[in-house]
Amino acid sequence: MGNSRQGKTDNWFQQNPRKTLVLVVLVFLVVLGLGTERLLGFLNHRRGIVLEAETERRYIKLREQRPLRQMRLQFPKNHLPYTDNVFTKTYKIDIDENGFIKPSKKYADPDLSIVFLGGSTTECMFVDEENRFPYVVGAILEQETGKKINAYNGGLSGNNSLHAIDLLVNKVIPLKPRVVVFMENINDLSTLLYEKTYWNKNNVRAPIETLVKSKLVGKLLKEMLIPNINEAWRNFAKTIFPHEEDEFAQARGKKLTVDQAGLAREFAMNLQIFIDICRDRGITPVLMTQANRIKDDPDPVVAAYIGRYGQDTGISYRDFKELYDLFNDTIRAVGRKNGVLVIDLAREVPPDKEHLYDMVHFNDAGSRYAAKIIAARLKSLVE
After folding, report:
1. Between 136 and which of 237, 371, 379, 382 could a Cys-Cys bridge form, CB atoms 3.0 to 4.6 Å apart?
2. Based on C-alpha coordinates, what's the Rg of the chain?
């Protein structure tokens, strides 16, 4: 009598009864768990209970360079209309473990440390590594005083004075620097001009960030699993679909009502907080005005930049210059009031293309020029 199963092949489940049982149990447990979660969630909501895990978390955003990141950047093509300098090379930017631009912590046991805080004008992204003024200042002072000096560059594009206060409290104070040098103007001006307050909901400049779980998971997966593909795609997309990043896009097309005194007062209060925190912690605060090419008679590069961003807001070149000068004057006034050293780069750095590649950013020559001025003024504080 022939075998009725002859010629038949058992499927995987029949060949692996124990694994099949385990799989069935696991599926059952997953379904049971999800069902139980839904049921408990329904019951809790009926009782007016919302659990912590169901809400979005909010964090104070530490706007710093990402620690240990290494970048090789070319000058952005969409900014070429606003510069008259020539950029043909790639710029090296390496970040240390504490989010400062290298070279920074040269010595494990320095005689003293100096920290520079500010935005892109302190960051000096499109300046050669050895010419960025925070580094050059430290090198000059070392040579002239014979002391071992760590000079930290804590600049980041877009940072304003509120971000500087956050950085000061959360990562600069532990370094126990002797001096903290702060330079800002245009980022505070633009934030207050377009957002009306430092405590805004701007995706880039908001001091508080809400963690959206779905976006966070996607971002983490891309950064953990395919960081190189992700970066290559971003660069490719920028090349194929070039666009000008505009963090204040939501405010464009609206006529702005400007309260000059109110804007200056907000800026002055943050400068005062910065000074008070430094002094309470035994740190010498130093303020710097921002060098610029915003002259009475604008050159084509500066006129094009301000015209591009002022044409739909009702802000003329003259209006902008008045506001910008007011913010530099505010730095001087707060410094005088508190007996704080103010290094007046706005008056001491020539306002031309030989020193600044656009409206406010140093080129290599300008950065080294500023470094000599800064070092000369800081020398008495570090001897």
Report:
1. 371
2. 28
